[in-house]
């Protein structure tokens, strides 16, 4: 049985020489839900962008047993659903339907299958009535759900989200937490929202300065106030 995500000794420096990742190793099992936490600049977003080949560093990285390389990139991207922090980076079509249909159409699926996938993905995020709405007229919380639907319509094995609750009002945040809690899939979520992490992620990985500094059960790591304080985190 392959790990869903297998990362061994991954390092990455940006063109200006800034070392963003330093020998990062982590393994995530199928259907495991894992939170990635740490201060700004810890390397969380850089790590996430490696998972579907947007960035390429030094080290070993495989998704569901497939090495992340040029030959496998199309397969990798169909298996890893990446949801950016700002949904406007993901929504660019005139209507919600077109946004959610974009991935399946790009995969070359027949129109009937595309329609079915759009319907299913919007149902999962409770946005079935929004199919003809204009994405840019939606609220932040609604956009976030549609962005998740654009990824779910491609039926990925793994869902990766960067700061999913950022910028949401309390009701939209609560609604999104329920959604993530209910989705039965492998999930890696980068977040500063420690209350959400404590609520729905059994495992937590703390990053700081491009390294993994702790990896364990969320409820245990959350009790270690010295550890949290040392890495700019607050106990919820």
Give me the secondary-structure topology:
Layout: E1 5-13, E2 19-28, E3 33-37, H1 44-50, E4 58-63, E5 66-67, H2 73-79, E6 80-83, H3 96-106, H4 111-124, H5 140-152, E7 158-162, H6 170-182, E8 186-190, H7 194-200, E9 203-208, E10 211-217, H8 218-221, H9 225-230
Parallel strand pairs: 3-8, 3-9, 6-7, 7-8
Antiparallel strand pairs: 1-2, 1-4, 4-5, 9-10
Radius of gyration: 18 Å
Strand order in the sheet with the most strands: 6-7-8-3-9-10
Helix content percent band: 25-40%
Which spans of ≥5 residues are poorly predicted at pLDDT below 50? none
Q: Please provide the count of β strands.
A: 10
Shape summary: globular
Order of helices and strands: EEEHEEHEHHHEHEHEEHH
> Major beta sheet, specifics?
6 strands, mixed
Calculate the mean pLDDT score and round it: 94
Question: How would you describe this structure to a colleague?
Answer:
- It is a single chain.
- The chain has helices spanning 44-50, 73-79, 96-106, 111-124, 140-152, 170-182, 194-200, 218-221, 225-230; strands spanning 5-13, 19-28, 33-37, 58-63, 66-67, 80-83, 158-162, 186-190, 203-208, 211-217.
- It is an alpha/beta fold.
- The longest helix is centred in the middle third of the chain and has 14 residues, at 111-124.
- The chain starts with a strand and ends in a 6-residue tail after the last helix.
Highlighted features:
four-stranded antiparallel β-sheet, 236 residues, 9 helices, alpha/beta, single chain, 10 strands
């Amino acid at each position: 049985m392959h790990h869903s995500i297998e990362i061994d000794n991954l390092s990455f420096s940006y063109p200006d020489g800034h070392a963003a990742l330093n020998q990062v190793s982590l393994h995530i099992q199928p259907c495991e839900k894992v939170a990635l936490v740490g201060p700004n600049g810890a390397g969380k977003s850089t790590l996430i962008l490696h998972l579907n080949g947007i960035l390429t560093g030094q080290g070993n990285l495989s998704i569901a047993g497939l090495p992340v390389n040029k030959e496998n990139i199309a397969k990798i991207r169909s298996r890893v659903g990446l949801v950016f922090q700002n949904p406007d980076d993901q929504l660019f079509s005139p209507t919600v339907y077109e946004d959610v249909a974009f991935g399946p159409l790009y995969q070359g699926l027949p129109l009937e299958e595309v329609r079915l996938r759009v319907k299913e993905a919007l149902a999962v995020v409770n946005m079935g009535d929004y199919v003809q709405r204009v994405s840019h007229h939606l609220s932040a919380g609604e956009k976030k759900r549609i962005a998740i639907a654009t990824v779910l319509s491609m039926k990925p094995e793994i869902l990766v989200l960067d700061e999913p609750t950022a910028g949401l009002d309390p009701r939209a945040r609560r609604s999104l937490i329920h959604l993530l809690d209910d989705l039965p899939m492998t999930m890696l979520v980068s977040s500063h929202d420690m209350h959400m992490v404590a609520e729905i992620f059994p495992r937590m990985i703390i990053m700081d300065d491009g390294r993994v500094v702790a990896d364990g059960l969320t409820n245990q790591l959350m009790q270690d106030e010295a550890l949290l304080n040392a890495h700019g985190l607050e106990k919820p």
